[in-house]
Amino acid sequence: MSPIGHEVRRLALRMIGTILTALVLLVVIGPVPAARALDIRTLTSPQGIPFWLVQVSELPVVTVDFAFAGGTRIEPAAKAGAATLASGLLVEGAGDMDGPAFQDALAARAVEFSTGVDRDAFSGSFRSLATEAEEAAKLVGLALAAPRFHADDIERDRRQLLVSLARSAENPQAIASRSLLAGLFPTDSYGRDTDGTRETVAALTREDLVAYVSRQFTRNRLTLGVVGDITPEAAGRVVDLAFAGLPAGDSRPKTDPVSPSFFGETVVDRPIPQTIITFALPGILRSDPDWFPAFVMNHILGGGTFTARLFREVRETRGLAYSVGTTLYPLDRAGLLYGYAATRNDRARETVQVIRDQIARFAEEGPTEAELAGAKKYLTGSFPLSLDGSGAVAGLLVTMQIHNLPPGYLDDRSSLIEAVTAEDVKRVAKRLLDTDKLSVVMVGQPADGAGSAAPAAARVSEDGARSTSPNSIQ
Amino acid sequence: MSPIGHEVRRLALRMIGTILTALVLLVVIGPVPAARALDIRTLTSPQGIPFWLVQVSELPVVTVDFAFAGGTRIEPAAKAGAATLASGLLVEGAGDMDGPAFQDALAARAVEFSTGVDRDAFSGSFRSLATEAEEAAKLVGLALAAPRFHADDIERDRRQLLVSLARSAENPQAIASRSLLAGLFPTDSYGRDTDGTRETVAALTREDLVAYVSRQFTRNRLTLGVVGDITPEAAGRVVDLAFAGLPAGDSRPKTDPVSPSFFGETVVDRPIPQTIITFALPGILRSDPDWFPAFVMNHILGGGTFTARLFREVRETRGLAYSVGTTLYPLDRAGLLYGYAATRNDRARETVQVIRDQIARFAEEGPTEAELAGAKKYLTGSFPLSLDGSGAVAGLLVTMQIHNLPPGYLDDRSSLIEAVTAEDVKRVAKRLLDTDKLSVVMVGQPADGAGSAAPAAARVSEDGARSTSPNSIQ
Hints:
By secondary structure, the first copy, chain A, is of the alpha+beta class. Chain A has two domains: 40-243, 2-Layer Sandwich (Cytochrome Bc1 Complex, Chain A, domain 1); 265-465, Cytochrome Bc1 Complex, Chain A, domain 1 (2-Layer Sandwich). Chain A is built from 17 helices and 14 strands. In chain A, the strands form three sheets. Chain A has a six-stranded mixed sheet with strand order 1-2-8-3-7-6, with helices on both faces. The first copy, chain A, has a six-stranded mixed sheet with strand order 11-12-10-13-9-14, sandwiched between helices. In chain A, strand 11 (321-330) and strand 12 (335-344) form a beta hairpin. The longest helix of chain A has 20 residues, at 151-170. The two termini of chain A are 44 Å apart. At the A-B interface, helix 1, helix 2, helix 4, strand 6 and strand 7 of A face helix 1, helix 2, helix 4, strand 6 and strand 7 of B.
């Protein structure tokens, strides 16, 4: 990595707080001021594929964002990592083009094409000059319908994924995140690392990759957002060139909710000076009628980076942690209120206790009027800032459809937030902020200092051998 | 960090390749197709501060990007880290507002405000709704003119920076980048880590921070780009509210070129399975008349991610490395052609040899006509994709001014690239691609396999104790 790369990387890490906020905003969806609301058109391509379009003409560029419902959720446990490996291999050749030929074809048209995998979807994006949009779509269509998956490429990418897994196994943040989700979802795909394990990745075959993409890349799983300098007719052609060649597939996968197993406290012993803390409480599904009260509640508790109660109490008042915060994490089949903090080992248990106390206090007292007003002002006022760029808008179009929100919803977002009352927030706080269900992972060597009221946690040296504390709630 | 955060982080890391490309494009500057070139206005505020403005009205948002020439270049060596520490503390209070009061004021207006430091500048950006732009500017102006630097905040941020430095000391990519620059610039500020060292950061005082910002935040060092839904008059008021309160300061710091000291090969021994490789050759200043031939040359050699010679020869043909590439790194006072690769320990020396051979071959033979045509097509066609969003455009306005490019330059970029001939590229390749000046750092445990023609390198266990190989060129 170059020095620029290194600086970019550090910048990227520093931006994560901002990105988290933006993600939550995107997940929630909202309007620009009504006078300039996005003009969303809901269309169907000539071959019958539905898509949403926002026409903008400031740049001669077209962006297409797509998501196939599934992701690691449709991987068999023994094949974990197939989605990630397949994603990386999509630029390594398609149809009768090998990797270099495919990459030359993308470069000759200056096409950007990227894909990624999460716990609920395989997502991607392609961008090009408007004049090249149809050629770009043909190449993407070929990559999705006929990926090459050559043995040499599989081996090279597998080796790199194994290196990445080995690094991740030593990364405190990754351990903390992985251990928390593994504890919350011990038998569900949500509890697995999206990159798989060293064992499953080592065993993946070409057939596994083919099986995954055959199941994943179907029209019935597809959601599409198109943004740019393109007419509805041309956009329909682009959509068909990229996606009409895919099979219809089964109907959408069921999304029966899964209940997290709250487990108390776990310590993963690592010889590092800081303790990385992750924690979770029950959250709510995006479709829950209490979504907006919960969203406002989270902002006041831990979502509003510098202004949240946890930040003020943990960092500003007590100087305990450099970073602390929470976010609503609405998976398709489960909701979490997810939190994190980083602090010195000798203050880790005190930090957890303060977090616990603040959660209990919020459940008991609810928000102040000033907090409620501030949260509403911020959550409505900051939304337009998150819509800068056609990539952001294309992502929004996909997210809205995944959450079954109508296009007109954008006009209502501000009033839905404004309508949240202190009683609403208090009600949802009582429902969600139950410290008996607080699950905590600490990675590091948290000292058992005096003054900590936290129960003694099981101390384990491997997250694989994690056990739970006596007061854990399953 | 939340699971979202973790996934965002991985995405961010995967995007670095893309970002690197985008950075190079931004540094080079170029046009959207002439029909829709950016309408750049060069203006002066009522208080006499020059700024560039692009009015766009699709979102009711205003973005202001700024850069103060200097950065870590104006830190005394004994005070390294002062700029980074000061940057982080700017949101911790200003004027008579403490941290929480200042952060409440930003949040109440939904203002995004971020800053960062590199080897040539202290940079920042603030964004808000257009209706809040003047209030946002007042807050930023207060942070720049009267940062609080409270003792408690300094200590907390210092601790966190020390933790970050400790992690960076064990991060192979960071070691490789740091060691290369330290070797190239052993006595210049460019050779120092922008975060300072554990010793200098531990010793920084409030007075050091005040001294740094007093020297750094002056109008004579300032470059400004404003983008958004705002008139020239209102933009002038915003500029004055943020920056007119600063002293004029000395004239701009001199930018006498500094010559990198090319040093041969260095191995930093680390018990990891992969070897991280960084390397450098002479580059050129952005003001060099051969900039565009060098830019095209770099794209063909290693800049064009999937299509570059190094990628094809190192990765596709030989399967040696997962990633390999080069970038032009135009510092204000020096130019580098900077490269990186990651490979298995037992293939590291072979990888370096292939890189060396490809560099020598390019210097000897120059580009093929097909490579030249492909590079021109990509470098002109991809540029509009990099201008998506007002943040990208605001950054472009600042970069253009730093490089002394006129606004009309955007109209000429494509033709400047198209005008590059094979002879131009060959000439600049002969000038720059001198393998006697190739400096290489390997972090890991590169095996001394047979078949490597690379000279034996000094093996050291600490980058601090690095020595150079017998054939190093100082």
